[in-house]
Design brief:
Blueprint lengths: L5 H11 L42 E5 H6 L5 H6 L4 E5 L13 E4 L7 E5 L2 E2 L24 E7 L4 H4 L6 E7 L5 E11 L6 E11 L3 E12 L2 E2 L26 E5 L12 H6 L3 E3 L4 E3 L7 E3 L1 E16 L2 E18 L3 E2 L2 E6 L2 E6 L2 E9 L14 E8 L6 E20 L3 E19 L1 E2 L1 H8 L14 H7 E2 L2 E22 L2 E20 L1 H5 L10 E17 L4 E12 L3 E15 L2 E12 L3 H5 L3 E7 L2 H6 L11 H8 L1 E8 L7 E13 L3 E13 L2 E2 L3 H6 L8 E3 L5 E7 L1 E2 L2 E16 L5 E16 L8 E2 H4 L5 E11 L2 E10 L2 E2 L3 H10 L10 E2 L2 E11 L4 E8 L29 E9 L1
């Protein structure tokens, strides 16, 4: 459209003059259905509205219909199915800091480096960080029924969205302008039992000549999935039959320490062990415990989610728009009872002194002959400690209650018939309350053991009345908020011989804050077998960006973008990007993109208090010193503990001097779009310098020479504590190939058949923990599948539609592959690579839908058709001995669903 009026010229002069410095990042629009008019729309990765079907940056699109065809229950399931997803934090992480939340990692960047949006707007971060350190967006409470489609930008996009968009961007597009009413009910269950779910959804919408209001509500109830219900996969017991390192816990009931060979230091006898509800392990002559019988594989939960969209046309060129989202969820996770070794006993002559390692002020002395039930009457002088599983307290359980709020209100309009603009105010808040049970404080248990003149033996059963007196119920409250104001204008800047130069210009201001706090005893670290994290902080930033899309010739388009972000706590950052689109013919697009990316340090890593926790590690150094083999059972209790399940304290601290992570992302590829065949191939790479991270306790214990300064050992040389502080480390670089292909056949009277393929192959993933360390090869070190691929076949016949999907994950080295290889080489042993790998896996989903009438649709399907279980890791020494970020033990699931529209 020609722009000749004075107002248009004034806008062009004011807004486009500054836009010459940079221009648009790129996008891929979703394919318009045949026969539907293609309108200019804003798609993920750009602020400029356009009509292009394929552009310089690849975007995967899953419509609501696509997700339903594949049998996905929620958004997290759909995101986990993506071939570009290299790992996920799921509700299987029952022992973690965030067992009720979930997220994904794109292109091995990590969940905290994958940006999640709704309708292009940032979401509030989950107030409780993953692992006590990493902030992320929770995908567990995002609406399913309100979703129109999910666009996944498979590239960094800091030039458009700012921080966090390193591995990619997940943009959830919600339905709008819905009219009428619809009710949908879905019931799903597993064939092995446990994990059943029911979901009911209500959609309502009404329109007038100038307005529309749409509301989507859904309620989901999911029952817990217990480990004891998965005997078919072997995870119902600590002694998992498919793992050479599976073993029952040695934390049953015994006394440890003292001079070697002292008969006092030993296990509760077999008869008393089993009578008290423990597990006798005859091959070790030890009173142990089977923890898996008490564990959840996935928590029980209830979720209510609602989303209301509204728009009102004030005049022909101006509309008022807004949205209000509310979600409330309750999730309860149960794990095995407390295991403690905190109560020490010093024997000196005729006196024994009881203490607790969590609080040096708690001590009490007794007569050796009668104190503590006479457990140490025959003990030689020395230091001893009780080892005890407190099963009388039942499961350690945590009920997480979450409330999410999001509100946006703004104006959208058109100026001079060609410039689209919008401005909005956005507010998001997440409240979290966690109530725990099955715990005791160090002081209350000490008071019980030291009561009276003689005290009590910790080897004796604890009565229900005493449990009630000793029990302590920790709690935690957390909250995070995000306030945002943003404005954007886009349109045609000027004309060139090859076409119109389009632009977008905008600015935004954001303030984030969070607070997480625990009860007083948890803050002191006085809760047995439990850690905790707390902290508070806030930051604000403003940003301005400009994009331009320049048609150099009819075949070549140059896209540029630049954005400047200024943070209150670490300064400013400029992120430019340039992209090329070359179309030598209508069916072929050759594309390339390169741009800078950055990521602001996690709030909790900057402002959080020290996070105290517990972990189970293998003490490789001590194990080898004792002549044991890491991960191998041993008849000697001490050797078995350090070689299999050494329980230690951990601390992860914040660092207020952290800098932003900075790097680049690049992509080059081609897209073919024909009448029947559509295909694409893209080679990509991203790199970040100054990566913020901390070393895990498990890694520090495995690589004890490199991380010796993080490790605290006792007088015997055994690890007691690992301390890690967040720091800017060296770099991480990942390179890969993405491929897609689709083909359709018209079968005449037999209907229509469609095939779709997508796959991602990791060519390189490497990094350094610090500038002086060796470069780690993630594919070699283990825990990362080199490729994933999906194949979908859909047959449409009259009112029936059937989809068969295959989801393949490649073989990979085991998570401790590097450590076991180094240990074998150190001992001069031959190392069998294939014996330390996780096998590949293919899952199949089948679903069918029938449109009985225009108003009634019935669906049914089976997820994991052949009941494939998790593939076990021969190097993973910890239960459940498979990578929970890749596999799960749900097994075969079936579902039925019905929808009625009014």
């Amino acid at each position: 459209m020609q722009t000749n009026n004075t107002l248009a010229k004034a806008i062009r002069f004011a807004l486009i003059g500054g836009a010459a410095i940079a221009a648009t990042q790129t996008t891929t629009a979703f394919a318009a259905e045949e026969g539907v008019k293609v309108e200019r729309i804003e798609v993920t990765g750009s602020r400029i509205k356009r009509t292009d079907m394929e552009n310089a940056t690849p975007v995967t699109v899953m419509s609501a219909e696509d997700m339903a065809k594949q049998g996905f229950t929620n958004i997290q399931d759909a995101l986990e199915s993506l071939s570009s997803t290299t790992g996920a934090m799921t509700t299987q992480s029952v022992h973690g800091f965030t067992p009720a939340a979930s997220s994904i990692s794109l292109r091995n960047a990590g969940a905290s480096r994958t940006l999640t949006l709704i309708n292009g707007k940032r979401l509030n971060q989950y107030p409780k960080p993953a692992g006590g350190t990493d902030n992320f967006v929770d995908t567990a409470n995002l609406p399913m029924e309100a979703v129109a489609r999910i666009e996944v930008l498979q590239s960094g996009a800091s030039a458009v969205y700012g921080a966090d968009a390193v591995g990619g961007v997940v943009n959830i597009i919600l339905k709008k302008d819905f009219e009428g009413a619809a009710v949908k009910y879905r019931h799903g269950d597993t064939t092995e039992g446990g994990g059943a779910s029911d979901r009911i959804a209500l959609s309502l919408g009404a329109s007038s000549d100038r307005s529309n209001v749409s509301t989507f509500m859904e309620f989901t109830d999911t029952e817990e999935l217990k480990a004891s219900e998965r005997e078919v996969f072997g995870v119902h017991t600590d002694l998992v039959p498919y793992s050479p390192f599976a073993a029952y816990s040695s934390y049953g009931a015994r006394i440890a320490g003292g001079p070697k060979g002292n008969s006092v230091a030993g296990s509760l006898p077999a008869a008393e062990c089993t009578a008290q509800g423990f597990l006798w392990i005859p091959e070790k002559n030890l009173c142990g415990f089977d923890r898996s019988q008490w564990r959840d594989l996935a928590p029980e939960s209830t979720r209510f989610i609602s989303s209301t969209n509204y728009n009102y046309e004030l005049n022909d060129n101006l509309s008022f728009v807004g949205r209000f989202d509310y979600a409330q969820a309750s999730s309860t996770t149960r794990i095995e009872p407390m295991a403690i070794d905190n109560y020490t006993v010093n024997v000196a002559g005729d006196v024994i002194t009881l203490g607790v390692d969590l609080d040096d002020s708690l001590t009490k002395s007794f007569d050796k002959a009668t104190g503590l039930g006479g457990d140490f009457a025959n003990a030689e002088d020395g230091d001893y400690y009780y080892v005890r599983r407190l099963h009388e307290f039942s499961n350690r359980a945590g009920e997480t209650n979450t409330r999410n709020y999001f509100f946006t209100a703004g104006l959208e309009g058109v100026i001079a018939d060609e410039y689209n603009w919008d401005a909005s105010v956005n507010y998001g808040r997440t409240n979290l309350d966690i109530y725990s049970s099955g715990y005791a404080s160090a002081g209350s248990m000490f008071a019980y053991l030291s009561e009276g003149e003689f005290g009590r033996s910790l080897l004796n059963p604890i009565t229900a009345a005493d449990v009630e007196n000793i029990a302590y119920s920790p709690f935690e409250r957390a909250q995070s908020t995000q306030k945002n104001i943003q404005a954007n204008i886009s349109g045609a800047a000027f004309d060139l011989p090859a076409g119109s130069v389009d632009f977008a210009f905008g600015a935004e201001w954001t303030k984030q804050d969070y607070e997480t706090d625990t009860d007083s005893e948890s803050k002191k670290g006085n809760i047995l077998s439990r850690g905790g994290s707390s902290g508070q902080g806030d930051r604000s930033y403003w940003a301005s960006y400009v994009e331009m899309r320049v048609p150099v010739t009819e075949e070549l388009v140059v896209d540029t973008a630049v954005r400047y972000d200024r943070y209150s706590d670490f300064g400013g950052n400029l992120t430019p990007q340039i992209a090329l689109e070359y179309r030598p013919m209508d069916e072929l697009l050759v594309r390339a993109t390169v741009g800078k990316v950055f990521r602001a340090p996690d709030m909790h890593r900057v402002y959080g208090d020290a996070t105290k926790g517990f972990d189970t590690v293998i003490d490789f150094q001590k194990c080898e010193a004792l002549g044991g083999t890491p991960g191998k059972p041993s008849a000697d209790a001490t050797t078995h503990t350090v070689c299999n399940e050494l329980h230690i304290d951990t601390t992860t601290g914040a660092n207020k001097d952290l800098n932003a992570e900075k790097g680049y992302t690049a992509n080059i590829g081609a897209v073919w779009g024909g009448d029947s065949l559509n295909a694409s191939i893209d080679v990509w790479q991203w790199k970040l310098d100054d990566m913020v991270s901390d070393i895990s306790a498990d890694k520090a214990a495995r690589e004890y020479t490199t991380y010796a300064d993080m490790i605290t050992r006792d007088a015997t040389g055994t690890i007691t504590h690992v301390n890690a502080v967040a720091q800017n480390l060296a770099f991480q670089k990942v390179r890969g190939i993405d491929m897609t292909a689709g083909y359709g056949w018209d079968l005449d009277a037999m209907g229509e058949l469609k095939l779709n393929f997508n796959g991602s192959y990791i060519l390189l993933s490497e990094g350094q923990t610090d500038p002086t360390a060796d470069i780690d090869d993630d594919l070699e070190d283990g825990g990362l599948p080199q490729y994933r691929a999906n194949l979908l076949a859909t047959w449409i016949f009259d009112d029936f539609e059937t989809t068969l999907g295959a989801y393949h994950t490649a073989r990979m080295h085991g998570v401790s592959y590097k450590s076991f290889k180094a240990s074998a080489e150190k001992k001069g042993l031959e190392f069998d690579e294939s014996a330390h790998e996780v096998a590949s896996q293919t899952k199949w989903n089948l679903s069918t839908s029938y449109h009985a009438t225009e108003s009634i649709t019935v669906k049914a399907g089976v997820v994991n058709l052949f009941n494939v279980g998790p593939n076990f890791d021969p190097t993973d020494t910890s239960w459940p001995h498979y990578p929970r970020s890749v596999y799960n033990a749900r097994g075969r699931e079936w579902f039925i669903e019905g929808e009625v529209k009014f």
